[in-house]
Amino acid sequence: MPETPRSEQELLARARALAGRRVIDVATQLQLSMPRSMRAGKGFVGQLIERALGATAGSLSEPDFQHLGVEMKSIPVAADGRPLESTYVCVAPLAEPAGRFEHSAVARKLARVLWVPVQGERGIDPAERRLGSAVLWSPDEHEMATLRADWEELMERIALGRVEETTARHGVALQLRPKAADSHARRSGIGRDGAPTETLPRGFYLRASFTAAVLRRCFLAV
DNA sequence: AGCTGATCATAT
DNA sequence: ATATGATCAGCT
Asked: Can you give the pLDDT at residue A119?
């Protein structure tokens, strides 16, 4: 297990040293065996890269590299570099939705992100998928405004007890989607009358259309 | 073909 | 139990 990087530059250098390598080679080096399938190992590649880079936050509600304030996200991409999936950000607070965007978990996690592209096409054997060149990103003014507007809209709906009628169709960049073991999971929330109720746990996700624009901008600058 | 709602594994 | 890491599968 590598030590945690001491600077952003060191983190980026380490991440870029992974570029071009296959998932199975990184796994072998860390003495990890491959899951039977991506269905059975959904988080495997992300956790593999966290280990390879020396992330520290575990399952805490903190950026992966706490001392650097950097969140690492592996992102499955097609041959043309476009993301194939949305990106999970964090759980949505359904019971105590007060607060300002600047202090939200969404804003803290997205303040600085290390994107690590990974070949994600379903036709490629998971073991054979290659890592791409990582990029560091912070939201620009426009991206930040979009994220804030989405967050405020979604949080307002939660606060007003309208989470049940809020779907993944809401939000330009950020969406609210189920985040649970299954559809029977329940979490405290706010009901239509403003009274406490039980509802399906949800998380904030970035739409693939948004991360596509982010990656385009990052790779243009490189 | 893209997207939404559902789901799988692991850490603490 | 609830956070993290995500991808799957079926519908539009």
From this structure: 98
Distance CA A12, CA A48 (A): 16
Taking the CA of residue A140 and the C1' sugar atom of nucleotide C10, their distance in angstroms comes to 36
A135-137/A113-119 β-pairing: antiparallel
Listing DSSP states for A19-36 in one string gives: TT-BHHHHHHHTT-PPPS
A175 touches strand B (CB under 7 A): yes
**Domains present along chain A, CATH in parentheses:** 8-221 (3.40.600.10)
State the DSSP H helix or E strand holding residue A44, giving kind and residue range, or none if neither.
Answer: helix A44-53
Question: Environment class of residue A118 by beta-carbon count within 10 Å: exposed (0-12), middle (13-18) or buried (19+)?
Answer: buried
Q: Is the pLDDT of residue A3 over 90?
A: no
The pLDDT-based confidence of A60 (bands split at 50, 70, 90) is confident
- Identify, with chain letter, the residue nearest to nucleotide B1 (CA–C1'): A84
**pLDDT given for residue A97 in this prediction:** 79
Strand C interface, A 132-161, C-beta < 7 A: none
Please state, in angstroms and as integers, the Cα–Cα distance from residue A39 to each residue in A43, A44, A78, A168, A181, following that order: 9, 10, 18, 22, 13
Give me the helix-helix angle, A141-159 and A208-221, nearest 10°: 160
Query: Do A180 and A201 form a contact (C-beta atoms < 8 A)?
Result: yes
How confident is the model over A73-113, as pLDDT tens digits? 999 999 999 999 999 999 999 999 789 999 999 999 999 99
